[in-house]
Amino acid sequence: MRNEPILTITAPAFTLPEANVDTDQIIPARFLTTTTRGALGEACFHDWRFHGDGSKKAHRLNDIAQGEARILVAGHNFGCGSSREHAPWALKDFGFRAVVTTRSADIFRSNALKNGLVICEVDEAAHAALMDRDGLEMSIDVAAGNITAGNITARFVLEPFARTCLIEGVDPMGYILAQGEAITRFEAGRAA
To answer: In this structure, are residues 159 and 152 in contact, taking their beta carbons and an 8 Å threshold?
Structure first.
């Protein structure tokens, strides 16, 4: 699958300080009936944003337009809970391109990176400083593993293959399929 190549993301930060935000909060199970990406933005954090009758709640997420917030600074242990690829889909469909946290759940992080959502895990001191930057511009450099926000610089580490896929705008299968000529040459050399 093709994703948008991501070298840097520069945008105002949107902060959600809540810890242990699970995938059912990101995208409630009743919205998991679709396998179409691009259709889950309205369902992202649905139960935080809407009452049962569909009217909007007084939640900060309703104060931003879909696509306006590209960098989410989230609380500790973001994306915990059940494994659902729909969670990064919903975040991307809402407009987020990166999540900054102290820790994300392993399966969520894997699903996010495969779907072109950058996960930046930073130390607690840097996270606290970034959490205070709500609405202010941040820049994430995927290749360098840096986040800059005013006079704050934070480091994050991405697994090298995930970083390559993000920069090239492909998922793991797309990366492998793009190596067709090299695979053919290797196979031809092995057959000889």
So the answer is: no
Looking at residue 170, its amino acid is V
Of the two residues 8 and 3, the one the predictor is more confident about is 8
Predicted model pTM: 0.91
* pLDDT (tens digit per residue) in 40-68: 999 999 999 999 999 999 999 999 877 77
Residues written for the chain: 192
Q: Which of 4, 36, 17, 37 is nearest to 124 (CA)?
A: 17
CATH number, residue 93: 3.20.19.10
Q: Is residue 185 part of a domain?
A: yes
120-141 burial code (b ≥16 CB/10 A, e <16) = bbbeeebbebbbebeeeebebe
Q: Is residue 85 part of a domain?
A: yes
Residue 89's nearest CA partner among 41, 25, 47 is 41
Q: What residue numbers bound the domain in which 37 lies?
A: 8-191
Alpha helices in 8-153 (DSSP H): 23-26, 46-49, 86-94, 106-114, 124-131
Q: State the pLDDT at residue 82.
A: 87
